[in-house]
Amino acid sequence: MALTVPDPFVWDTSFQTFYDTIDDHHKAIFNGIVDCTKENTAANKKKLVDVVKNHFAHEDSEFIVHKYPEGASHTAAHNAFTAKLEAASVPLDDATVKFAKEWLVNHIKTIDFKYKGKLG
């Protein structure tokens, strides 16, 4: 079941994982998507992709360190999302922006929330 995408599209405490670095990364991804809607440029898309890759690298390393059992499938979801973003042409079309927003909201609240309290 798809969750409601907030409008305006901003991070709020309903997305909180209680890991400060991860929450800060999630905020940056929200902001990166918004930046792409305000100024739909190659520079903003690159910035978004870089923020996403940095976050996923951090999260994936936490899975390894803490032997998180769902790490492999979680990393696969990260890789698929990153590939879709990287493949998108600029300017990002409405469908791609909608996909990114929906994916992020659903990923945080259904997938990321599974690791709450399990990463040390």
TrEMBL record:
Taking the record's annotation, the residue ranges forming a coiled coil are none
- All copies of domain Hemerythrin-like, residue ranges: 18-118
Q: Gene3D superfamilies in the record, alphabetically?
A: Hemerythrin-like
Q: Which Pfam families match?
A: Hemerythrin
Determine if Iron-sulfur is one of this entry's keywords.
no
Judging by the UniProt lineage, the source's domain of life is Eukaryota
Query: Key word Protein transport present in the record?
Result: no
Q: Check the record and name the InterPro entries matching this protein.
A: Haemerythrin, Hemerythrin, Hemerythrin-like, Hemerythrin-like_sf, Hemerythrin_metal-bd
Which CDD domains does the UniProt record give? Hemerythrin
Q: Which UniProt keywords apply?
A: Iron, Metal-binding
- Give the binding site residues for Fe cation 2: 59, 74, 78, 107, 112
Binding site residues for Fe cation 1: 26, 55, 59, 112
Offer an example of a GO molecular function term for this protein: iron ion binding
Q: Which family does it belong to?
A: Belongs to the hemerythrin family.
According to UniProt, the name of this protein is Hemerythrin
The organism is Ancistrosyllis groenlandica
